[in-house]
Please model this.
Amino acid sequence: MLFAPNAWSTPEGIPDAIDAELIVNEVAPQGRQSEIECRFHSRVGLLPDTRLTLGLPEDARVIGGTDHLDYPLADSESASFTARVVFTGKGYKEVRCVAASDSHFHRGAAAIQYLHIGPDRSTVGAHPFDPARPLSVVWPDGASVVRLPSEENYPVPHRDTPPPDAPIELAVGQTLADMTADAGQSSRRSVSMTVNGRFQFTQVANSSTLLSEVALVEIVDATDNNVLHSCYTSMQGYYSCGPFTLSGNAVRVRWSPYFSYLGDEFMVLNPEMGTDKKLDNTWSFTTGKIYAPMNGSYQIGTYIVDMNTPPQGTYVAFNLLKDILDVWRYIYNEAGVYESPVQTGGSAIVQYHWDYLHGYAVPTHYDFYDDRIYMDGSADGAGDRYVAAHEYGHAVMRYMYYPSYPNAVNCASHHIYSESSVGCAWSEGWAEFLAMLPRSDGLYRGHNVEAASWGYNDGHAWQNGPAVEGRVVGSLWDLLDNVADGYDQYSDGNIRRIWEIVHDDHPMTFQAFIDAWVARGYPVAGPANSLYQNTIQ
Model:
């Protein structure tokens, strides 16, 4: 019997709401019956609407027992189920026991185990990364150079360990045609150098679109992996790191989805590397060796991380960072800089699992207790560019309200168009509103909140009133935007008044927000019509 503990931990001193355990009672060869048990334990009181699930790959089928359980866990109560599973394919398989309770601050937990299924014998063990595919590198002269795949393209597990050498190395300024065998073969005296270039990544929604974002750049000594210099890219992806002194003969360049400013910290963690909040566990990408034959400034061209760049999911991590920083920047530029001291939306730690093929990673949610955004790779997770921004909206509210939070009852299965509760509608409507801010089209995940007035139906018949999150986000949007439609003829033009109320007064419902608006002496007649446009009277 093999045991996998809860793989998602919480910071010291903060209680975990649910513990998850995965027990492999028996692992059998391909085509034969294995037995997997999932155990869960609640530690924070009643958790209604809790769904317990066994996540399996596509080539696995359950032939006995069950792969899920809907169970309202009480305080200190345990629940478990067992599944008899047949794996029809061979190779490495990831299995998960997942618990999700949307009604309790979107709480979730998971235990993970890897199995290697063979035709004659199966084992339990760690998952190796898949072989890399070639990486295209665009150099300043426009020539396309294909660097052969090698293990060095994977994240460095420990930053005090140098990455392995590449089978083929390309010196700065060389092409494959004029590469010589003696490039960098001898040790060199210390040189002073600066590395310049550009870093981009493809968009999740459209692989032909290239994106850029502020990201951490580190120049590391290729011999001992020590960081020689660090800098950030610009929002357009350009960077110039240096000057720094190199005693060896080559460096590597590493990019990480990390940013820190004004005390706020943003990072996207790869749980395959670790779940502790530290730079070593981020989704990083590292180049091959770049040789430095003399003092000077080195242009290494544009590196593009796409869906084929190993490890799988790296490009998604940079997309997630961009989606969140777009919201952070909007708050900072449109509201925060006008306050004294300057106000921001706060930090965001994202834990992203790349498994977008099967969708059985820990469900996408924001965890109130450990202040962390969990993202899976499904169409309702990292596959949708609104979702990370939405979850960051919950983090922003916690940052402002802590330790209080709206009472989000009836929120286990909520929709933008349906009634839940005034607490749920306020917290979800706020998160949807923030996710819309960097875009000016009035859309949220295909729903046009600008058009959603009385009797609106976009394939879903929208319900009315302040317990409907779409009505809340529509009201906030109409207070902000400058588009006159129907009863809505009002515009604040910016989010400063909205931000000040939420930041300072901590309303727990949309009605409390309206009360604070009136108490502050803000305009009433125009905003009242904007709210009526959104069925709130």
Remarks:
- The mean pLDDT is 79.
